[in-house]
Amino acid sequence: MDWDNVAAEDVIEALREVEWSTPPRSFGEFFSRFAFPRSFSKWKSRLKCNLYYYRTNYFILMIFVLGLALITRPLAIVGAAFTALSIAFLNDSFAATFNEKFIRTIRHFSPHLAAKMRPPHMPVIRGRSAARKTVYVCGKPRWVFVVIFLTASLVMWFSSCGLLWVLYALLTSLVVIVLHASVRTPNLKARLNTFREEFRAVWRNYSEL
Fold it and tell me: What are the backbone dihedrals phi and psi of residue 81, each rounded to the nearest 5 degrees, phi first?
């Protein structure tokens, strides 16, 4: 895949739609074969490729850095967990999986309440939905839960007097991620995995027609 022709918006869209249930790459693979890019175009291509291929590793790395920075502030750790959950809700597969498992759990206690949490029916025209697919969580658009968890995390950070420390930890984790994605050379396995996931995405789009 030629990552030079992939825009940053396409990478963000792919990260939003891709499956995040796959386990992270091994420790040995994640910390091997480092080299500086030879040009600015090579750096951009490598950065986009690694951000997509090692997405789960980078998410875990961010949580690990936040945990170390906030280890003396338990309330701020809970706020960071809420932030991580709100970010995870931005991914389609995570939001859909969470919604199904939560509704399945509620159904054991109250089938009537679980039925109300089902997403509304979307009309279909010529095999495609009439509007862009909207992801629902517990019967509400997912942005509602993203706003709720982000607000709760900000309140906890202010209560623990650790907002600036959290921002510093977030900035540190982002710098570490960009540095790793810049110097980690893409291997053949990453390229083959990208092609395989592209094929699955295309096949899934055809099956929805």
Answer: -65, -40
Longest dimension (CA), the chain: 61
For residue 107, give every residue at least 6 positions away whose Cβ sits within 8 Å of its Cβ, in sequence order, or none: 114
Looking at the structure of the chain, the number of domains it has is 1
Helix, strand or coil for residue 195?
helix
89 domain residue, yes or no: yes
In a domain, 178, yes or no: no
- Cβ 176 vs Cβ 65: under 8 Å: yes
- DSSP for 29-65 reads HHT--B---SSHHHHHHHHHHHHHHTHHHHHHHHHHH
**Can you tell me which residue has the tokens 């991580």?**
84
How far apart are alpha carbons 150 and 152 in whole angstroms?
A: 5
In this structure, the chain runs to a length of 209
In the chain, the amino acid numbered 74 is: P
Q: Model confidence over 25-78: pLDDT tens digits? A: 888 888 888 888 888 888 888 888 888 888 888 988 888 887 787 777 777 778
Decide if 114 is inside a domain: yes
Phi/psi-derived region of residue 19, left when phi > 0, alpha when psi is between -120 and 50, beta in every other case: beta
Distance CA 185, CA 182 (A): 8
pTM: 0.60
Those residues whose C-beta lies under 8 Å from the C-beta of residue 135, and which sit 6 or more positions away, are 92, 95, 96, 99, 141, 142
